């Protein structure tokens, strides 16, 4: 997340959400490091987050298909610190990222906070368009593919694992991310394009 994380960490509380400065930095990092859909992170239940093992049960999914994801060591340490603070301001709220009104953080609140951080980071010269919260999930997938290529892995063999982790219904949804990799990686011999195009002639997200 680079410089953007600095501005996310500086997000102020609002009148409507007095603890947004506590919840937003953790929520955005979790979406980014675990490849979650924004609503999956926003509606995450506290009881489904294991701060001992780092395992998270994702239940509020796009297709009602439950799955487990696992936090990295850095993310887990961040989440544990947040979990300790959360106990002081959330009351009986069942959501891991609670709203002051008693439910989960509203989608509008999450997107507004991210847009504010993006605007303050002033990255418009580096990126062709404004980045959305959902793009953090895209970045996770691309980072996984990049890492596997660096490690000499066969991407075609690894795609099913990424599919399960991200909760995609079809392998073609996961294969979409190969098309958005940097050009030097697309030209890598690790990608068998003849085989790929036969399997996924039209790839969409």
Major sheet strand order = 1-2
Shape, please? globular
Radius of gyration: 18 Å
Q: What portion of residues is helical? A: 40-55%
Number of helix segments? Answer: 10
Strand-helix topology:
Blueprint: H1 3-9, H2 20-34, H3 38-42, E1 55-58, E2 67-70, H4 73-89, H5 107-121, H6 134-150, H7 155-166, H8 171-175, H9 183-186, H10 193-199
Antiparallel strand pairs: 1-2
Would you summarize the structure shown here?
This protein has ten helices and two strands. With 205 residues, it is mainly alpha-helical. It is globular, with a radius of gyration of 18 Å.
Protein model, in words:
With 205 residues, this protein is mainly α. It folds into 2 domains: 3-121, Intergrase catalytic core (hpI Integrase, Chain A, Orthogonal Bundle), CATH 1.10.443.10; 134-199. The protein has helices spanning 3-9, 20-34, 38-42, 73-89, 107-121, 134-150, 155-166, 171-175, 183-186, 193-199; strands at 55-58, 67-70. The protein has a two-stranded antiparallel sheet. α2 packs across α6. The model is unreliable at 196-205 (pLDDT under 50).
Task: Supply database-style keywords.
mainly alpha, 205 residues, hpI Integrase, Chain A
